[in-house]
Write a structure and sequence with these properties.
Blueprint lengths: L2 H22 L3 H15 L4
Length: 46
């Protein structure tokens, strides 16, 4: 795995974790936005 792929993977993981934490606190709209950002970052993992 090269450094670029690892950095995108870390970015996706951080945004998914943030989405889970935001969802637990009751902010469903923000969760959807964070998951959309994570999905757009995951496109770069291909």
């Amino acid at each position: 795995m090269n450094l670029v792929r690892i950095s995108w993977l870390v970015t996706v993981a951080v945004f998914v974790l943030a989405a889970v934490l935001v969802f637990v606190n009751g902010y469903v709209g923000y969760m959807a936005v964070l998951l959309a950002v994570a999905a757009s970052a995951a496109v770069n993992l291909r």
